[in-house]
Amino acid sequence: MPSGEILSQSEIDALLSALSTGEVSAEEIKKEEAQQKVKIYDFKRALRFSKEQIRSLTRIHENFARLLTTYFSGKLRTYVQISVASADQIPYEEFIRSIPKMTILYLYEVEPLTGRMIIEINPNIGYAMLDRVLGGRGASVNKIDHLTDIESKIMMNLFENAFQHLKEAWGAVTEVEPSMISFEVNPHFLQMVSPNETVVVISLNITIGETSGMINICIPHMLLEPIMPKLAVSYWMQTEIKEREPEKVVALEDNVKHTGLPIVAELGHSVITVEEFLNLSVGDCIELDNRMDQPMILKIAESPKFIVQPGKLNNKMAVQILDRIKEGDSDE
């Protein structure tokens, strides 16, 4: 009987009847349960990440998928949808066997973390993007074995800019600087880690118009090892409720203080007819409703703030503040 299985009343009655008649002994049931507690452990498939760490990585790359959706939608000028399909930990050798023999592979460093990650892009998606960039409708033709230098350069620029969003997606956990190291088409040339090394593979589903495919992000355990504690749920909760650091508040205040505001000192107003406006010529004078000896209104961002008088400072026109206009005053 499998452990944890819920029995119906008829099955319970049958089991009690078998125990009472001696067909089944209690010792046999205990022995069977003891045998089921033994699990086979594959040392070649070592599980080094907990479930909550995998969930944290999924959460990070869900944010990354949203950033990529926005980036590619604007870059390709077409419908693009990207979402996380799965996040699994597998041996590096298994990841290499799971991807096509000829595909689009980019090797990235994410300093200051030690190690490199692989980003594998399905050729169908890669060529659909290339076709859109070159002015096509997004058709996909797999020609990975004879990619031209110009096409390689265009695709490298496209994906290098796209995967700079890793910095923003990982910002909640650690500061990283992603940089593209190399481009390959044969995964067997990328012996990044030992075959049995555990890697996390985050698979992204991507749809461009009528073309769909996968983007796989392979991250070795050794790269994530320094930040493993930050992938715990408790760290995320502390980060969300943590107050802003004082230096960030100071930097924000400093930026606000240096924000430019338009300032206008109005000499006065005047109302003329359309006919008078059409007949204006050089040398004509327009009478304002404000006298020369009366103060002016100083507006900041179109809001009346001060009462001022005109003058000069260092041979430049200036105004001197006489009073502040309070909220609700109708001085204007």
UniProtKB/TrEMBL annotation:
The lineage of its organism: Bacteria, Bacillati, Bacillota, Bacilli, Bacillales. This is Flagellar motor switch protein FliM. GO terms for cellular component: bacterial-type flagellum basal body; plasma membrane. Belongs to the FliM family. It is a peripheral membrane protein. The keyword rRNA-binding does not apply. It comes from Perspicuibacillus lycopersici. GO terms for biological process: bacterial-type flagellum-dependent swarming motility; positive chemotaxis. The keyword Cell membrane applies. One of its GO terms (molecular function) is cytoskeletal motor activity. Residues 256-325 form the Flagellar motor switch protein FliN-like C-terminal domain. It comes from the Bacteria. It is found in: Bacterial flagellum basal body; Cell membrane. Its main location: other. Keywords: Bacterial flagellum, Cell membrane, Cell projection, Chemotaxis, Cilium, Flagellar rotation, Flagellum, Membrane. It holds the Pfam family FliM. InterPro entries: CheC-like_sf, Flag_FliM, FliN-like_C, SpoA-like_sf.
